[in-house]
């Protein structure tokens, strides 16, 4: 098994490629309690008929579930994920060799069908690249992403969820970070009726560095859930998590779960996670649960911070008192709120798109 | 020439009356000082004119060149030519000073200033206030010292060129050097003759740098005495005791 088991920690869970290893999901489980199951269209209980496809454009090799790299970073932690890994028809393998200056982009476009997908990014030692997964269109999609970050490689994975308002998307995104390698995950979720992403990081050798950045903006009736797990099992690795979400409107809901475990062997670990949520209207809701479990005292640092706040009327007054209209003042505050994350993304085209998306949400 | 007219203005906060019939007329080019003890309602007057939602106007009127200020939203008041330099400027995380200033100037002037001219204008205004150019890329009021916050307020005053400027306790928390720099900024605006200034202060210290044309003593939510700059000297010597007593009766 590629992923070290979490037995003996509070994050203990069933990890298996066999869908039958998982019991029925009732909604009372810790990992499902925030998710409105009735909006999953049967993905959670096996009643969904998954017979459709999703279009993926880009440069890749087509692979099936039998490919040896499938399952090398990700071991499913729930039934939908296990079903998708067993039954996906067409997956994509992106091999990164050498240092690439231009991003590799996979355009994932749904046309209303119910589908499984699987992307494997195999980054060879000392390689460097930015890989962008751009999700648009609509449909019901369970799509896994596995990132094998070779020793001393430097990989950024950008996953943009810019779905139409009626899409449902579940995605386990597992990275396995090699010795002295660097992995950066940038998650941007604006679209979809229900999006539930599970980014996880494990380390294959000491000296690994993982940075997980996330932005989400939930509008009326959108459920945007991000559940992170970083497992420190080897010495001297680093992880940084920074997620910011905003929610506005009736039943707009963001969920952020940040699980970090430092096992006994993982001495010298340096980890910090931060989550900030901004509620732009009274009906909007944000749930935030940071979890840190530490089994050794010999670490460099470990901490977390989480806060959810309402729109600050004093900021609004200050900006308006300088002639700036209420609408523009709100946009400035929200852009400012996201800015801390945006400036760490370091991809100008994405920043512009993000600004445009904020503009659209607040219009 | 612009005129701000405040007539019988009454204001309450959470059903408690704070202002009890304020009368005041400020014309462009004039500098008025409002002096009064803590809790006399000086800041309430400033925030009520600016339109802070916490304050409820229960009577009276405020007009700027005949236009009903009280009917305007906060941003409309600013665009009409009112400016409030705040005692406690608010932090706006993630919004840089330069972005904020240009957005405000665009709003108040009705069009975005040409970029090249604007860069020069901002640079010169900052230099006049002895501000480090790096200041422009910091986030608005985030981590600013007391002096930096006040310089930033006066920077806005100089760039936005309002018809009427209200300076709420601008002297508080300033050391002597910062007080001089900030006062020079106010005096530059004053020298244009285009702006009427209402200087709200507890202490006479700033009035040595910005000499008022008129002094109003504020107590119990209204103006209880008016005079020229010599009134400030009398307050310096005798304090507010007799006015506080008078207001209580």
Alpha carbon gap, first and last residue of chain A = 48 Å
Q: How many H/I helical runs of chain B?
A: 8
Beta-strand residue fraction of chain A: 35-45%
Widest β-sheet, arrangement of strands of chain B? 6-9-10-3-11-12
Q: Extract low-pLDDT stretches of chain B.
A: none
Q: What is the structural class of chain A?
A: mainly beta
The biggest beta sheet of chain A reads:
16 strands, mixed
Cα radius of gyration of chain B in angstroms? 18 Å
Mass-distribution shape of chain B: globular
SSE order of chain A: EEHEEEEEEEEEEEEEEHHH
Number of strands of chain A: 16
Oligomer: heterodimer
Poorly predicted runs of chain A: none
Shape of chain A: globular
Q: Mean pLDDT of chain B, as a whole number?
A: 94
Strand content of chain B: 25-35%
Number of strands of chain B: 12
Instruction: Count the domains of chain A.
Output: 2
Features of the shown structure:
heterodimer, A: 363 residues, mainly beta, 2 domains, 4 helices, B: 249 residues, alpha/beta, 6-stranded mixed beta sheet, 4-stranded antiparallel beta sheet, 37% helix
Can you describe this structure in just a few lines?
Chain A has 363 residues and is mainly beta. Helix content of chain A is 14%, strand content 44%. Chain A has a 16-stranded mixed beta sheet that branches.
Q: What do these coordinates show?
A:
The complex is a heterodimer of chains A (363) and B (249). Chain A has 363 residues and is mainly beta. Helices cover 14% and strands 44% of the residues of chain A. Chain A has a 16-stranded mixed β-sheet that branches. In chain A, helix 2 crosses helix 3 and helix 3 packs antiparallel against helix 4. The longest helix of chain A is centred in the C-terminal third of the chain and has 20 residues, at 326-345. The model of chain A has no long low-confidence stretch (mean pLDDT 94). Chain B is an alpha/beta fold. In chain B, a hairpin with a 2-residue loop joins strand 1 (3-13) and strand 2. Chain B is globular. The termini of chain B are far apart. In chain B, 46% of the residues are buried. The chains are: A mainly beta (363), B alpha/beta (249). The A-B interface holds A 312-315, 317-326, 328-329, 332-333, 335-340 and B 50-53, 73-75, 77-79, 83-84, 86, 89-95, 99-100, 103-104, 107-108, 139, 156, 160.
């Amino acid at each position: 098994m590629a992923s070290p088991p979490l037995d003996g920690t509070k994050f203990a869970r069933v990890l298996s490629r066999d869908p039958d290893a998982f019991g029925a999901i009732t909604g009372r489980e810790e990992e499902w309690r925030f998710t409105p199951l009735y909006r999953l269209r049967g993905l959670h209980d096996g009643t969904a008929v998954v017979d459709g496809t999703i279009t993926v454009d880009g440069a890749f090799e087509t692979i099936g579930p039998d490919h040896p790299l499938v399952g090398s970073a990700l071991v499913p932690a729930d039934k939908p994920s296990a079903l998708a890994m067993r039954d996906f028809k067409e997956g994509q393998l992106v091999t990164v060799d050498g240092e690439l200056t231009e991003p590799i982009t996979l355009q994932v476009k749904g046309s209303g069908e119910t589908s499984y997908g699987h992307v494997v990014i195999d980054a060879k030692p000392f390689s460097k690249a930015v890989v962008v997964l751009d999700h648009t269109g609509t449909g019901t999609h369970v799509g896994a992403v596995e990132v094998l970050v070779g020793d001393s490689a430097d990989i950024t994975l950008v996953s943009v969820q810019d779905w139409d308002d009626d899409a449902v998307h579940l995605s386990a995104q597992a990275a396995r970070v090699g010795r002295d390698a660097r992995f950066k995950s940038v998650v941007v979720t604006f679209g979809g009726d229900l999006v539930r992403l599970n980014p996880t990081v494990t380390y294959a050798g000491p000296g690994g560095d993982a940075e997980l950045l996330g932005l989400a903006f939930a509008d009326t009736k959108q459920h945007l859930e991000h559940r992170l797990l970083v497992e420190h099992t080897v010495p001297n690795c680093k992880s940084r998590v920074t997620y910011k979400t905003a929610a506005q409107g009736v039943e707009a809901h963001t969920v952020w779960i940040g699980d970090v475990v430092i096992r006994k062997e993982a001495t010298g670990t340096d980890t910090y996670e931060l989550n900030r949520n901004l509620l732009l209207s009274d009906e909007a809701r944000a749930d935030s649960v940071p979890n840190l479990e530490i089994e050794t005292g010999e670490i460099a640092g470990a901490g977390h911070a989480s806060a959810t706040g309402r729109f600050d009327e004093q900021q609004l007054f200050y900006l308006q008192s300088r002639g700036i209209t209420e609408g523009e003042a709100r946009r400035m505050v929200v852009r400012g709120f996201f800015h801390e994350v945006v400036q760490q993304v370091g991809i100008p085209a994405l920043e512009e798109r993000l600004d445009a998306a904020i503009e659209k949400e607040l219009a | 020439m612009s005129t701000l007219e405040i007539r019988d203005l009454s204001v309450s906060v959470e059903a408690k009356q704070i202002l009890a019939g304020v009368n005041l007329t400020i014309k462009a080019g004039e500098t008025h000082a409002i002096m009064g003890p803590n809790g006399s309602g000086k800041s309430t007057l400033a925030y009520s004119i600016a339109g802070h939602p916490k304050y409820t106007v229960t009577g009276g009127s405020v007009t700027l060149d005949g236009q009903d200020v009280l009917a305007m939203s906060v941003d409309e008041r600013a665009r009409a030519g009112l400016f409030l330099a705040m005692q406690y400027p608010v932090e706006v995380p993630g919004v840089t000073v330069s972005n904020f200033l240009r957005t405000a100037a665009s709003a108040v002037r009705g069009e975005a200033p040409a970029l090249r001219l604007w860069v020069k204008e901002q640079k010169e205004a900052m230099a006049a206030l002895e501000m480090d150019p790096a200041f422009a890329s910091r986030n608005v009021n985030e981590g600013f010292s007391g002096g930096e916050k006040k310089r930033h307020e006066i920077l806005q005053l100089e760039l936005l060129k309002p018809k009427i400027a209200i300076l709420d306790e601008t002297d508080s928390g300033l050391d002597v050097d910062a007080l001089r720099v900030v006062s020079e900024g106010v005096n530059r605006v004053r020298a244009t003759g285009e702006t009427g200034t209402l200087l709200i202060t507890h202490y006479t210290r700033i009035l040595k740098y910005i000499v008022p044309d008129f002094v109003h003593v504020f107590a119990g939510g209204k103006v209880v005495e008016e005079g020229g700059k010599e009134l400030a000297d009398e307050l310096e010597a005798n304090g507010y005791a007799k006015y506080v007593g008078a207001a209580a009766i």
